[in-house]
């Protein structure tokens, strides 16, 4: 249950509200569940990899055997056949392993996308207010693909090569412990350097992915406002903005390239140095008679055997580091609570429909606002973020790594009292009731809080204080989905979803028949839309409904709501894009639909709501008048002015 008290103290900016502060790097512990989600398959791949290395190891042994025999003057054909079989099987295993690795890599990406999409579609609405759509899209599309590289860039081969590695290490230790110590110290030094650099890669990768997110967000912004851009002759300016983000992503990519450029030679150099040291020290030891040339040569051969899996491991460390950067951004979203995280699992059902009236008090109004106050939750954060952006602290942060990055993040986290400009109350002590079967209209100037009132009824946000009741029960105590099923919501500028007319209609009631769909379309005067395409209900509406006019989109939204036939209708500006004739038709349809239903309606044009049972006049979030049109003309100066303005008085 959410906090109902009005926040008065400035808050520290919580992590979740900081898309700009640099996403925390994920830990290996967070990566394992993704890699080992299909444990059996991973086991199969690792076994194939180990068997594959055994077949690889067998080849030089067989080859040596063959040469020995040839030298001894005897040609043994079975060794050749076995060698051919071993080479073929090794190739087959390598192909199979490659396929299974790619397949598992794709599954990991799929699972990450599943988790993310599941979470994103359930985030509280406030998260969408605070985040950029393109950035969320980029997390699903781009960040997830980096997880695949962990598997496909050497990790499993390196695990498979462990057998060779361990064998070589034991043999080297037994052969000459002094040379072994020299080798191992070189390797440890290079490992330390590689791990240190890998941490930088992870941070740089997170920053790069963040920039890719910003780029996607900018492209999304430009494409979604294409007509406005063209009409404002702003294409070039917008292009420059997007290019700036593209170059930002490029620069962050270069950061990773620079670190990798150090990482690869450092790891190679360490290995080469160990070889030189072994040769040098080994030579001296041979000269001193402390070891034989034969064991020095064997030692060096084992050193080479050890180097191959080690090289793979170093490559894998870099891939894992990049993945950890991206995983941080994935996990950041996954760690957010679902919208219904605090809901009680045994929350009662409240149904206002039919005689059953489940859960509701029979005589209670459909809806009731009881001293409701509300402020949008993220304004403190917005102020701080704006300040951070303006002062360039964000850029400083993403270009730094390690301790400097942490310090920058801590600076960003701290909000001075003076930064914390608390948002004003958008609704202030609002009380009104919507008796069952009544139509209540919310009127008032722009920004008065009308749409916010409907958003609170839908529980997109919870009140800062006060209670909203449905059928006498606090909304927060009711099962959320069931509660929303009681509501039909036609939003201001109702979005039309890309797809067919049928897709849009069935959103609220998937089981509606074609006949019902056609009937409801005719009810809202959309019959001609059906008639003008041979596809009928299957006609495409275009991206965001571009193939429909504004009025048609609104009527489609109303049709969708009417089809779902909920007991309470919430209408926000639902007739604003309609001409007089259409408006009259829609009002007829709404009046019919409203029979026996409760309705809360917002309309700027008072003509659409003068017949309401009650009008609630809002001004700056406060109720300044309640009553019928005639009563308000007498009692409420603001309403009188609104009415005069619209030539109704
Ligand atoms: N998601 C949001 N985050 C922060 N502030 C918001 C958000 N949505 C609206 N506001 C603010 O809340 C106030 C009330 O907005 P609301 O949309 O409820 O007004 P309205 O009466 O419906 O206006 P209009 O008639 O112009 O649609 C405005 O000052 C607006 O800036």
Described by its quaternary structure, the protein is single chain
Q: Please name the CATH topology of one domain.
A: ABC transporter transmembrane region fold
Low-confidence stretches: 1-21, 379-384, 392-403
Q: Residue-averaged pLDDT, rounded?
A: 80
What's this entry about, in short?
This protein is α/β, with parallel strands linked by helices.
Structural account:
- The protein has 649 residues and is α/β, with parallel strands linked by helices.
- It has a domain at 32-334: ABC transporter type 1, transmembrane domain (ABC transporter transmembrane region fold, Up-down Bundle), CATH 1.20.1560.10.
- Helices cover 61% and strands 8% of the residues.
- The protein has helices at 28-35, 39-71, 77-120, 125-130, 133-160, 162-175, 177-224, 226-231, 235-287, 293-334, 379-390, 393-398, 402-413, 450-457, 480-485, 501-506, 514-523, 527-531, 550-564, 580-594, 629-635, 637-645, and strands at residues 367-374, 427-434, 439-443, 465-470, 473-474, 487-490, 568-572, 598-602, 614-619, 622-627.
- It has a six-stranded mixed beta sheet, with helices on both faces.
- A hairpin with a 2-residue loop joins strand 9 and strand 10 (622-627).
- Helix 19 (550-564) runs parallel beside helix 20 (580-594).
- The longest helix has 53 residues, at 235-287.
- The chain is elongated, with a radius of gyration of 34 Å.
- The protein starts with 27 loop residues before the first helix and ends with a helix.
- Mean pLDDT is 80; it is low at 1-21, 379-384 and 392-403.
- The structure holds adenosine-5'-triphosphate (ATP).
- Adenosine-5'-triphosphate binds at residues 129, 376, 426, 444, 446-452, 492.
């Amino acid at each position: 249950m959410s906090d109902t008290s009005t926040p008065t103290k400035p808050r520290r900016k919580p992590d979740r509200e900081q898309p700009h502060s640099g996403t925390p790097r994920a830990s290996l512990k967070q990566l394992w569940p993704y890699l080992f989600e299909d444990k059996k398959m991973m086991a199969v791949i690792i076994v194939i990899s180990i068997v594959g290395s055994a077949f690889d190891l067998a080849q030089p042994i067989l080859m040596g055997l063959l040469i020995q025999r040839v030298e001894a003057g005897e040609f043994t054909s079975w060794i050749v056949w076995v060698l051919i079989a071993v080479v073929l099987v090794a190739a087959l295993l390598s192909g199979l392993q490659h396929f299974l690795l790619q397949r598992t890599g794709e599954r990991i990406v799929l699972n990450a996308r599943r988790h993310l999409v599941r979470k994103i579609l359930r985030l509280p609405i406030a998260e969408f207010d605070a985040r950029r759509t393109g950035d969320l899209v980029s997390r699903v599309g781009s960040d997830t693909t980096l997880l695949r590289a962990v598997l496909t860039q050497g990790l499993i081969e390196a695990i498979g090569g462990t057998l060779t590695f361990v064998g070589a290490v034991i043999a080297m230790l037994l052969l000459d412990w002094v040379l072994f110590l020299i080798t191992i110290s070189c390797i440890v030094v290079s490992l330390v350097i590689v791990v240190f650099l890998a941490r930088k890669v992870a941070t740089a990768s997170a920053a790069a992915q963040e920039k890719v997110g910003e780029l996607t967000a900018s492209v999304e912004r430009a494409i979604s406002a294409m007509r406005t851009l063209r009409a404002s002759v702003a294409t070039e300016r917008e292009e420059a903005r997007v290019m700036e983000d593209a170059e930002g992503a490029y620069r962050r990519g270069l950061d990773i390239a620079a670190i990798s450029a150090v990482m690869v030679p450092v790891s190679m150099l360490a290995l080469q140095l160990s070889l030189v040291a072994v040769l040098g020290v080994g030579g001296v030891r041979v000269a001193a008679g402390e070891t034989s040339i034969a064991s020095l040569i064997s030692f060096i051969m084992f050193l080479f055997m050890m180097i191959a899996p080690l090289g793979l491991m170093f490559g894998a460390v870099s891939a894992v580091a990049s993945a950890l950067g991206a995983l941080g951004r994935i996990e950041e979203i996954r760690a957010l609570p679902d919208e219904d995280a605090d809901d009680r699992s045994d929350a009662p059902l409240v149904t206002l429909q039919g005689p059953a009236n489940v859960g509701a008090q029979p005589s209670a109004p459909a809806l009731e606002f009881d001293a409701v106050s509300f402020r949008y939750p993220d304004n403190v954060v917005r102020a701080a973020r704006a300040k951070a952006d303006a002062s360039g602290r964000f850029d400083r942060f993403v270009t730094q790594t390690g301790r400097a990055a942490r310090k920058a993040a801590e600076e960003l986290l701290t909000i001075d009292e003076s930064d914390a400009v608390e948002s004003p109350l958008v609704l202030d002590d609002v009380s009104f009731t919507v008796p069952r079967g009544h139509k209540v209209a919310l009127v008032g100037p722009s920004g008065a809080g009308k749409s916010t009132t409907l958003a609170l009824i839908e529980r997109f946000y919870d009140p800062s204080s006060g209670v909203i009741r449905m059928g006498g029960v606090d909304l927060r105590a009711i099962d959320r989905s069931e509660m929303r099923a009681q509501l039909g919501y036609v939003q201001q500028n109702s979005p039309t979803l890309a797809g067919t007319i049928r897709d849009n209609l069935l959103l609220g009631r998937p089981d509606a028949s074609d006949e019902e769909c056609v009937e409801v379309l005719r009810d809202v005067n959309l019959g001609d839309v059906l008639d003008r395409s041979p596809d009928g209900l299957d006609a495409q509406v275009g991206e965001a409904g571009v193939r429909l006019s504004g009025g048609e989109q609104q009527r489609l939204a109303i049709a969708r709501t009417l089809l779902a036939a909920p007991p309470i209708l919430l209408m926000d500006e639902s007739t604003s894009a309609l001409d007089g004739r259409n408006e009259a038709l829609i009002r007829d349809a709404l009046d019919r639909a409203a029979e026996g239903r409760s309705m809360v309606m917002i309309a700027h044009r008072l003509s659409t709501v003068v017949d309401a049972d009650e009008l609630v006049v809002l001004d700056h979030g406060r109720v300044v008048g309640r009553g019928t049109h005639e009563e308000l003309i007498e009692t409420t100066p603001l309403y009188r002015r609104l009415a005069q303005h619209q030539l109704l008085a």
